[in-house]
Amino acid sequence: MKYKYIVALSFLTFMSLGSCGEDFLYKAPQGSIDENALTNANGVDLLVTNAYANLTENDWGASVFNWTFGGMYGGDANKGSDANDQSVLNTMELYTTLASNGYIDQKWRWVYKGVKRANKAIQVMANVTDMPEAVRKSRTGELKFLRALFYFEGIKVFGPFIPWVDEAITENNPLIHNDKDIYLNVLADLDDAIANLPNTQDTPGRVNVWAAKALKAKILMQKGDMAAAKPILKDVIENGKTSNGLAYGLEDDLDANFSSYTENGKESIFAVQFSVDTNNNGNVGMSLCYPHGGSGNPGGCCGFYQPSNELANSFKVDANGLPLLDNSYRNGDPVSYRNPSTVASAPLALNNNEIPVDPRLDFAIGRFGIPYKDWGTPKNSWVRDAANGGIYLPKKHVYSKAEEEAGLASGGFSDGWAPGSAMNLQYLSLRDCILLYAECLANDGELSQAMNQVNKIRTRAGLEPNIIKINGVPAANYKIATYPTTHAAFTDKATCIKAVRMERKLELAMEGQRWFDLSRWGGEYMAGAIKDYVDFEKKYLAKFATASYLPAAKTMFPIPDVQIQTMGNDESGKPYLTQPAPWK
């Protein structure tokens, strides 16, 4: 289900069904869809698809893949591009964010747009009489899942004290205080979803019961309730199946998770379904995040989301092929460096190929001199401004040349002008669940079991399909091994936790997850990690010399000023929305 069937109608439907006032003299406006016309099984299906479509309709700050909030803010990447383009992000990447930041407002509006769509579909479905009960149950479960997902995106960014609006509230602009923790409401939605969803669906884009369980576990982990998440994660990993009936499993080839040709595979628990139809539904939210430089390269615009020096060097390994858990990867020479040559044709950057590195470095990050999927090696023009963005390129979500030639991608499939592709991206994945489960095991002192989960991920990373080669020879000094049972991670809890957390950093690099991990691991941990990141990055990019450090209390973003002003005050003069204490 590629969601495209209702994208063209989505905003029109949302606006007309959410109208208020005197019913416009009791006449339906021309060009709108009357609610009565949708009060049937077909109408509900349209409204459910409309709720799914919210996942693909987002501004750059609202993408569910969180390249700004999760990736850039967490230190996986800097803004990239040049200093003047989308300058609103300059303060965010340097940790001087203000509540007036437009990207923050985009996220808030997107959350409640999705919630409104889900609520409207539930409200209309309550009056439908021609829908088979099995379909009604599934659609109810799908909508509760989607509503939980939309709220979870709000919680990750703004914290759990945001207004809860469900189908019982019919006002178009409800005035609700943000004085209650909504975690329990969101988890209750997922319990309803689990009770109603089937094991498989007629299309892989629809959620099934296992996706709902995985999302519940992920939310519990963000909440800090590892005890409740642990058995759910175990169940998902051992017994779960995709919506099209595939038993969950890790793909041998990492690229299988980032290709239009192999999407909705066994590692994908829930993926956002993108397409390249006439509605330009090609992942608008990440349309800035492709190499720069015109035709003949992947995207041609706009040079944002460039991997950080800190992330790239995290992939250094020791002589045994294991991560440097003592953070000594920040010492010595970098894995790549700016080419000092002034010759115009000289490559922008060179690699220290004697340094042993995890092969996932060149899967997650584009480096000069290393094949960039099937596009050849990067050209200097692919980096818009190395002084501002550095020398690395995003890679995971970027389409291949074969996909472009097959009509599955181009430089103009997002919003009609920007790069995009039909490549689905996984919002919930087995690799994520395995590493979350490893965290639970490590927390409970089950260290061997935790490291066995980590070693599953590392074994896959070292398989032959994941070693990039040039003329049959590895393109860099790749070295990766599983942790031996003699390693301290098998006997020392603190070391085990370090190993699990490092594995998440490496495996999920550039997937918009990093800052949400740091924040849920605690304010002090987050603040320390961000300080270390800033201090390292300023050695390479001058702009970080003016960066601030995030205080431990700021494990959330501020509520947008414009939303506080719009909501106003109640009868007693109390604001409906109050800023979290750290941001006052």
Task: Describe this entry's structure for a reader.
The protein has 584 residues and is mainly alpha-helical. Among the domains are: 192 residues, Serine Threonine Protein Phosphatase 5, Tetratricopeptide repeat (Alpha Horseshoe), CATH 1.25.40.890; 140 residues, no CATH class. It is built from 20 helices and 12 strands. The strands form 6 sheets. The chain has a two-stranded antiparallel sheet with strand order 1-3. It has a two-stranded antiparallel sheet with strand order 2-10. It has a two-stranded antiparallel ribbon with strand order 4-5. Strand 8 and strand 9 form a beta hairpin. The N terminus is likely disordered.
Question: How would you summarize the topology of this molecule?
Answer:
Blueprint: H1 4-17, H2 23-26, H3 41-53, H4 67-72, E1 77-80, H5 88-93, H6 102-125, H7 133-158, H8 183-196, H9 209-223, H10 226-239, E2 268-272, E3 304-307, H11 309-314, E4 336-338, E5 349-351, H12 361-364, E6 365-366, H13 386-389, E7 393-394, H14 401-405, E8 409-414, E9 418-421, E10 425-429, H15 430-443, H16 447-461, E11 469-470, E12 473-474, H17 493-507, H18 514-520, H19 523-537, H20 561-567
Antiparallel strand pairs: 1-3, 2-10, 4-5, 6-7, 8-9, 11-12
Helix pairs in contact: 1-3, 3-6, 3-7, 6-7, 7-8, 7-9, 8-9, 9-10, 10-15, 15-16, 15-17, 16-17, 18-19
